[in-house]
Amino acid sequence: MEHPITKNQQDLCAALGSAVELIIRHATELTRLFTDKQQREHKEDAERILEAGRELQVFVVDMLGLLQNGESFAPLRHDIRNTVGLVSGYAEILEDEVSHQPPCLAELRGIQKSTSRFLNSLDELTALTSDEEKAPSVDELISSLSTTARSRSEATLGRKVLLVDDNDDNRELVCLQLNRLGIEVAEARNGHEALAALATKSIDLVLLDLMLPDINGYDLLKRIKQDKNWRHLAIIVISGVKDEQSAQRCLEAGASDYIVKPVNATLLRARVSSLLERKAWEDKESAYLSNLEASYDFIRKVFGRYLSNDVMQRLLYDGDGLSLGGERREVTILLADIRSFSVISQQLSPEDCVRLLNNYFAVMTDIIMSYQGTVDEFIGDGILAIFGAPLSDALHSDHAVACALAMQQAMPHVNEYNVESGLPAIDIGIGINTGPVVVGNVGSELRTKYGVVGHHVNIASRIESCTVGGQVLASADTLASMQATPQWRKTLEVNVKGSTEPLQIYDLTGIGVPFDIILPERNAPMVFLTEPVAISVRLMQGERLSQSAGLGRVVALNGRELLLELDLTLSSLEEVQLMLPEVGEESLAYARVMGADEANRYHVTLTSSVGVLRNLLEQRLA
Amino acid sequence: MATILLVEDNEMNRDMLRRRLEKRGYTVLIAEDGAQALESACAELPDLILLDMSLPVVDGWTAAANLKADERTRSIPVIALTAHAMDGDRQKAIAAGCDDYDTKPVDLKRLLVKIVAHLGEEGSV
């Protein structure tokens, strides 16, 4: 079982005990010296000192008992200090009165000396035992220290020094001196003990006597300095001889300092303090560096999923990469969305939904990064990617368009996975816009996000909302900024909030060299049904159904495109819910109005690949 | 020569400190607890009060507050004496209205410096 009382406390108690014993001895002698009747009053005072001394003796025993029980001796300290006061007070009175009697004076001075020693040990013990019970003298001492001295005491506090010396008295002395600095001392009597201590304890500094019984101190020094685990340790060599050659040899072998015996206590403490302080800084620095490395690793792991290496490099190592605030810059914004995802997700368990999204996002993120884009955000099922920021890219619009086409090209691959995993096939629509926006770290100090803000982001979003599955729509601004040659099947005009002029957008099908991506042609001729099939059509307003509904007939289809005859008037790009009345809700599907032909028939494109409706219609083909 | 009111309940302590102060030429009045201290201070109007903080009946903290609340005794400097030597004692003593503070065991030289400082010219020995 570990004893609560430390060796240091024991030492101090022992010091208190011997001081009291000396007080009693001197006081006893003093009472014997006052034999004259005239000196009765003096004898009484001497007896008071003796009585107080005996009381102190009891207190010291009590105090040791309290310490051994791990209890505070604070209440006792009050009585002890009072009693010490009696000893020194009466001694001083007597000193005045018997100044003509040298033998008495000698005893009295002995008493005063022991008293002040007693008080010093008591203060030390108090300071050791509890931080809360610091004696004011200690408090004053600390507050009068300069700040450097105080930070030095922080550097030494709790540090561990290995003291290698075969002389017991030397070790005890140095221990006491270092303990006063709050330094823990591990002791070794010879080289083997020293090596064992180094291997098992975490040591900050070694005090090494050169004269050891087993290993030569110089050899031990070299051995420590050659071990990769111990090499960093500061070593102060203490030598019995003032020998310049020996000093030079030790310093060359890696010793931090060389002190000659007899060791001056103040000097030793100063050197130990300064080396420990240096060690504390080195420890702090290496802890800081490894923290920093760990943070960078973490950032790399987390953001590496969304950002290309170049971007990470910029954010991590550029001085102001993480400062808040943005810059105005021309970029290309790409927004991709899964068509009718809200409908699809209703049919999926949350786990399947996440599985589907994770696979889709993973494939798309790789593609975006390969075109130097940055995935800025996943918004539900949507992806917002930026080209041209944070790193500038002169070809941002080319890269964005090529990327969008590549994303569409990759969709069969994504759907292959989905079908294999029992998930529904999905289609995506992609909107692209180019223009000046504000990019940078947006948010608060605590939660910062590299983002993109501005009117042109909203336009990108508006363009994206016009897409049907498989489509890439880009603004005229994007096309104007491109260097490669784009290919498109048609242009559309859409109204954008805040602009009076309709926006010209391009339904892209390919991009020329150096990217050279052409999407497979979707507009094969319509195939007519043997007989029109009745269909109910209901207009959508956002995610909700509107009141306007009507009946119509499907007359032709081609893949996802249907040709409808309707008694309802629809506008281009409006979204509708379709259902075959003869089948019922099972055949629910969603479509976007692509336009009307000369015979006032509507072209619609199925947006959600709810297969039932399509399969039923395909069975009716001519 | 100045008159000092020594408030101390421990007889030996009182006797010892009284004698030492008298040796330095001060007139020493005695009170054994906080209540006596207030009474004596009002009646005798000493030049300075040495007040032990652990007293019976009325403790030193209360006595100090009372002395400083009473118009007759307010201007008398009070030096608190405590053997606890605790960290917060100084602030506590000053907060209670004491003018100064010293720890026990009394270091007479140190205490005399404080006494002289509070008594001004009159107190110099």
UniProtKB/TrEMBL annotation, chain A:
Keywords: Phosphoprotein. One of its GO terms (molecular function) is adenylate cyclase activity. The keyword Phosphoprotein applies. Residues 332-464 form the Guanylate cyclase domain. GO terms for biological process: cyclic nucleotide biosynthetic process; phosphorelay signal transduction system. It comes from the Bacteria. The keyword Coiled coil does not apply. Transmembrane segments: none annotated. It holds the Pfam family Response_reg. Residues 160-276 form the Response regulatory domain. This is Class 3 adenylate cyclase/CheY-like chemotaxis protein.
TrEMBL record, chain B:
PROSITE patterns: RESPONSE_REGULATORY. The modification 4-aspartylphosphate is found at residue 52. Keywords: Phosphoprotein. Residues 3-119 form the Response regulatory domain. It comes from the Bacteria. InterPro entries: CheY-like_superfamily, Sig_transdc_resp-reg_receiver. GO terms for biological process: phosphorelay signal transduction system. PANTHER family: HISTIDINE KINASE, HYBRID SIGNAL TRANSDUCTION HISTIDINE KINASE J. This is CheY-like chemotaxis protein. The lineage of its organism: Bacteria, Pseudomonadati, Pseudomonadota, Gammaproteobacteria, Litorivivens.
